[in-house]
Design brief:
The structure holds two protein chains of two kinds.
Chain A (H helix, E strand, L loop, with lengths): L3 E4 L2 E5 L4 E7 L7 E6 L6 E6 L5 E4 L2 E6 L4 E6 L8 E9 L5 E4 L3 E6 L1
Parallel strand pairs in A: 2-11
Antiparallel strand pairs in A: 1-3, 3-8, 4-5, 4-9, 6-7, 7-8, 9-10, 9-11
Chain B lengths: L3 E4 L2 E4 L5 E7 L4 E9 L6 E7 L5 E2 L8 E7 L2 E6 L8 E9 L6 E2 L3 E5 L1
Parallel strand pairs in B: 2-11
Antiparallel strand pairs in B: 1-3, 3-8, 4-5, 4-9, 5-6, 7-8, 9-10, 9-11
Classes of the chains: A mainly beta, B mainly beta.
């Protein structure tokens, strides 16, 4: 059973546009929701993260929107740039301070110049 | 800060041999490190959780005798792929968890090719 569902699988956006990636989860015990960015051949890098007591968090061009009742969270990339072209993974955290991450299947974002 | 390194970055080995991959947290201590496996165009799959000074916890379906994990210090964990076979070819990524943090910091990955 897939514990976190990520969509879309791929996304093409024009430069300057808004990229939106969505994730949905079932288990209300998840307590931390990060987004990772991964370039080909590299390890993932933490982009932005949110805890369930906050509905939105913004860092530069990146915003997480969190809807606890709907058990959904999304990543918004404003003013998308070609350098943002990468694969994005949402993840959910469980198990306390030494807990684990479960990753979504990823979204390949292509920003066209 | 929060830099994690892996060595080697890529390795080619022959079937039946063993390969060791190192994961180091360079500027912080990590009581917990994680090992992931990623096949092309797929997501990261957790293989095992490594705690300093204790035995690793393996995810269901991961052979602990094949993937040996040692977390000998607060800054170093190693993954040894024993008797490697072509199906073990993959991208192996480690992450380290600073004490008291939820944020895992990932290494750059190791590309393993078994011929």
């Amino acid at each position: 059973q897939q514990q976190v569902k990520q969509s879309p699988q791929s996304l093409i956006v024009q430069k300057g546009g808004i990229s939106i990636i969505n994730c949905a989860y079932e288990n209300t015990a998840f307590d931390y929701f990060p987004w990772y960015q991964q370039f080909p051949g590299k390890g993932p890098a933490l982009l932005i993260a949110i805890r369930p007591d906050v509905s939105e968090k913004k860092e530069g061009r990146f915003t997480i929107s969190f809807n606890k009742s709907a058990k959904q969270f999304s990543l918004h990339i404003m003013d998308s740039q070609p350098g943002d072209s990468a694969t994005y993974f949402c993840a959910v955290h469980y198990g306390g301070s030494q807990g684990n991450l479960i990753f979504g299947k990823g979204t390949k974002l292509s920003v066209k110049p | 800060g929060a830099v994690v390194s892996q060595h080697p970055s890529w390795v080619i080995c022959k079937s039946g041999t063993s390969v060791k991959i190192e994961c180091r947290s360079l500027d912080f201590q990590a009581t917990t490190m994680f090992w992931y496996r990623q096949f092309p165009k797929q997501s990261l799959m957790l293989m095992a959780t490594s705690n300093e000074g204790s035995k690793a916890t393996y995810e269901q379906g991961v052979e602990k005798d094949k993937f040996l994990i040692n977390h000998a210090s607060l800054t170093l964990s190693t993954l040894t792929v024993t008797s490697a076979h072509p199906e073990d070819s993959s991208f192996y990524i480690c992450s380290a968890l600073p004490v008291g943090s939820y944020e895992q910091y990932f290494g750059p990955g190791t590309r393993l090719t078994v011929t």
